[in-house]
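Title: Comparing notes on inverse folding

I've been comparing how different people in this forum approach sequence design from structure. To keep things fair, I'm posting one structure and asking everyone to reply with a full sequence. Here's the target:
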């Protein structure tokens, strides 16, 4: 579990992986998909995910050179992990909203 959390550490990392779960992307496409993310943070997250073996950088010849980012097989296996994290957060949020209004809500299944 610690290895997984280390690979996903840092703000925005899970959102970068989410975008790549939808298919390979160029840097520009990732910038459009995550407009509030700075260039520095996006570059850092892509490098971090590359070092963790989650993302592969594919540089294609030509001018200008074309670079695409794609998930490795290991990166694709994070899909269910991220879904489970989202599900847990949605359930916790529903419980918190129910507690604030004075009533408990049932977990989302």
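Reply #1:
Here's my take.
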């Amino acid at each position: 579990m610690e290895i997984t959390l280390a690979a996903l550490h840092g703000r925005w990392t899970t959102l970068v992986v989410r975008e790549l779960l939808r298919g390979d992307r160029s840097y520009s496409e990732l910038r459009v998909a995550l407009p509030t993310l700075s260039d520095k943070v996006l570059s850092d997250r892509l490098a971090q995910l590359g070092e963790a073996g989650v993302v592969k950088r594919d540089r294609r010849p030509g001018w200008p050179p074309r670079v695409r980012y794609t998930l490795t097989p290991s990166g694709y296996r994070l899909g269910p992990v991220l879904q489970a994290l989202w599900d847990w957060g949605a359930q916790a949020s529903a419980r918190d909203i129910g507690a604030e209004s004075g009533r408990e809500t049932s977990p989302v299944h």
